[in-house]
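Q: What changes when ME8 is included in the input?
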Amino acid sequence: MPANQSFYITTPIYYVNDDPHIGHAYTTLACDALARFKRLDGYDVHFLTGTDEHGQKVEKAAADAGVDPQAFTERVSQRFRQLADDMGFTHDDFIRTTEPRHIEAAQAIWKRLIDRGEIYLGAYEGWYAIRDEAFYAESELTKGADDEKLAPTGAPVEWVEEPSYFFRLSAWQDRLLEFYEKHPDFIAPNSRRNEVTSFVKGGLQDLSVSRVSFKWGVPVPDDADHVMYVWLDALTNYITAAGFPDTESASYKKFWPADVHMVGKDILRFHAVYWPAFLMAAELDPPKRVFAHGWWTNEGQKISKTLGNVIKPHDLVERYGLDQTRYFLLREVPFGNDGDFSRESMVTRMNSELANDYGNLAQRALSMIAKNLKGIAPEPGAFTEDDQAMLNAAGELPAALRPLMDAQAFHEALERIWVVIRAANVYVDRQAPWVLRKTDAPRMGTVLYVLAETIRRLAIMTQPFMPDASAKMLDAVASPGDKRSFGDVTDTAAMLAPGAELPKPQPIFPRYQGEEEGEGA
Ligand code: ME8
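A: The predicted holo structure follows.
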């Protein structure tokens, strides 16, 4: 890996109108796993998350809570930072759109757009959904109960008529299509790419980018009656954090354009249509990729406050454990698809894949070393073909995982690791070191060495997904803290040192014994 290669990854910045839930944790978790993976692979990573604090929706939530918007955003933003701590996220920066550095950047992109004739003053007349902070055409609306007009997302809309600045989005249709054509990896997964392309082919209208009917936003430069449209403000956070408006700064040059904007499918249009258009119009580079993942439901139902089935990430962590929760969320659903949270499948994965497959592998091998070899890593004899095949299978994991992680196929990356874990369990059964103990003690030592070394390699590879458990496993095979990157998977200098003292093995993935009927079975 070339030294100092950079990798910039971002989460959406979350609205502070409400408390964080599993959906927010999911997007940031995916970014965290990828950020950790890239760091372990030698990249200089910049991982950004934060909160979206302006706009009518937040203003309204603050008014409902009887607090002024600034105090309200302070309070809720703090809960998102707490979530990040609870989940062990390793972001390098947490941006808030009410920070001076961001207001400066948002006004600077506005100026670039107005200087280039990409924004003009007009009047907006049309439908607006506060919940989505989005404008809708009459033709997109459906009717709800009592003939109430609804956006395609189900959000109620209201009629808005006011002076407004517009961005010449209509002029960007062909250039956007050309951009998608030239950069086939820009939108992922593929099905989403087709969705966006047909939306753009359907024609684009100029976009209202300022409002005068409320105040909670970034003031438009040179026209204080207007505040910037919250999406233009919010999207700009990605360049603020890279150092914009100083496009000559070392950080901007290093990290912009971002490698991946990770988003939920609900906000793909803003990221894959508006954002590259704003940037190209401002003569700035568009990001390299936008990945839109799917939607989580709870036991088959849409997650909503009204239904009272909001899953709090903190509760999952308390109940099942942090690494278990991280593993489940990334393994359960092919990344990109919708997913359903079910306790039964959480417990099944914990017990069969974590406790049985991975945990038992380590426990079996390491307790044999503890019992039969006084906890001292054995000196291996010559490796047989089987031994070598086992070591190679684990050694090939970095190369096998790189393309999967670059495609954000987290579930496949985990499955690929489990192929090796299962192979290691087959290897133990076939080699039967408990039989060798009586018949061929030196050969038992070699088999246990191969197993412990395989565990070391596996634990290096599971770090991005399950950092705490992997660290414990690496401690259990006496792996030094500075020899845990992907380069150390096969570096002979990092291999388990014969004679090393291994600590007494502790179970790392306990079986979950649920009290509920059916759980723990
Ligand atoms: O849209 N399943 O913020 P937001 C999966 N501020 N992911 C979910 C989810 C669910 N049920 N619910 C939420 C905004 N998410 C804007 C973004 S970016 C410049 C501005 C995740 O608080 C998912 O990532 O509504 C979704 O895109 C995001 O939360 C929306 O967060």
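Observations recorded in class: The pocket of ME8 is lined by residues 12-15, 23-24, 26-27, 52, 234-235, 237, 263-264, 266-267, 295-296, 303 (CB under 6 Å).
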